Amino acid sequence: MARQEGLESLAVVTIPHPIGGVEPERLDDMLAAAVDRVAEALLTAPAAAAAGEHHLRVHDAPGDVLGFLSFAEEHRFSDGLPLVPPTAELVDRAVAASGRDGDELVGVVTPANRGATVRAVAANAVMAGCPPALLPVVLAAVRAALEPRFNLQALTTTTHPVTPLVIVHGPVVDELGFNPAANTFGQGNRANAGVGRALRLVLQNIGEARPGETDRATHGGPTKYAYCIAENAAASPWPTFHDDRGGGSRGSRGAVTVVGGEGPHNVNDHGSTSAAGILRNVAGTMATLGCNNVYLRGQMLLVLSPEHAEVVARDGHDRRTVQQDLAARARVDVRGISPGNLERFRATAPHVFGDVPADGLVPMVDHPEDVLLLVAGGPGKHSVVVPTFGPTVAVTADVDAVQ
Predict the structure, then answer these.
(1) 18, 39, 188, 229: most buried by Cβ count inside 10 Å?
(2) Could you give the number of structural domains in the chain?
């Protein structure tokens, strides 16, 4: 954080976890213990920052796989899985496939506030196993994640197990072979895995969102390796998510939408034969006390399977009425909230918890449009709810045509 603000020699005094849920008297003791360390830091000459230590550099790395893996671990480029050595030839091919200048600045990646050039993004995409044709999709995902309203700084430094979920939609899904059907959240597809992993490597290697340091996730999750799905437009009974998000407005090949999401929460419903039954089950999955949306509000993502979507549409629902139904149904019982949390929730979301009675119900979302609705996946009576970090907004960016 000090480096991010241009204060690399700033002395830092840390008050360690836990802080939340700690008795006030203990907090007083923790603060008192920090006073001497603060005084010492103020009275000690700062160490000189190493010149150029944190600038992007081109490395002379081994070209063989095993040698490069050791090199990547030593230099902290690795996510723990095998990597493709990003040779100059492979990176140049990826840059050429993007139709952009390799030195073009895509944006500044938090928390390190380092500039991400097309070439730097390409190097991480190559390491992730992306073929050159996928780089325009990776670049779109990076651009979307860097939009201020996405709140990437908070998403990459929180203790919450959240990460950018990349949703690919539009013609590019079929063009580049993304998997929108069975196991779309899972393994087995190079495009899904490569794009999701490339974005994570960009956040780690350019933005320095590293576990246990700036990435403070308490547990993290497997989604932090790669988190990318695609819309199953052919199976949607409604106008597509791509149409709803306004993707392709500049004549692009498609678009990506990034959502600051937790891992997928399964909705198992093999018994309902009506929209009311399915949506009731979805609402029950949305209404969980442990997710941020209870008190930090924001958006939630619903990924309906084609079979569930077909039943819901058959009973007369469109996208808007599904959103309205779930905004009304997805509620938590205040009696299930601990007194300490309820006090915190009232301070954080007074418009929701301020006047609620002791036996009241509170909604999970403030507005129907806060429920994002997508059809994806394959056969089966399962759907997925993705709670979000809360203070984040889904952002859509076009996948540019190759120039």
Answers:
(1) 229
(2) 2
Q: 281 and 245 in one domain?
A: no
Give the closest residue to 383 by CA, choosing from 322, 315, 321, 299: 322
Q: Where are the beta strands (DSSP E) in 184-284?
A: 228-230, 254-261, 265-268
Instruction: Respond yes or no on whether the N-terminal peptide bond of residue 111 is cis (omega within 30° of 0).
Output: yes
pLDDT digits (tens, 9 = 90+) for 204-219: 999 999 999 999 999 9
Per-residue pLDDT reduced to its tens digit, 78-121: 999 999 999 999 999 999 999 999 999 999 999 999 999 999 99
- Which residue range forms the structural domain that includes residue 211? 61-262
The tokens describing 327, both together, are 């905004």
For residue 250, pLDDT beyond 70: no
Least Cα distance to 156 among 214, 222, 77 occurs for: 214
* Displacement of CA 163 from its chain's centroid (Å): 3
Identify the domain boundary among 207, 232, 262: 262
Same domain, 230 and 365: no
Give the helix/strand (H/E) hosting 347. helix 339-348
Do 364 and 246 have their domain in common? no
Closest CA to 227 of 155, 297, 148: 155
What span, in angstroms and rounded, lies between the C-alpha atoms of 219 and 226?
16
What does the pLDDT look like over 313-324, one tens digit per residue?
999 999 999 999
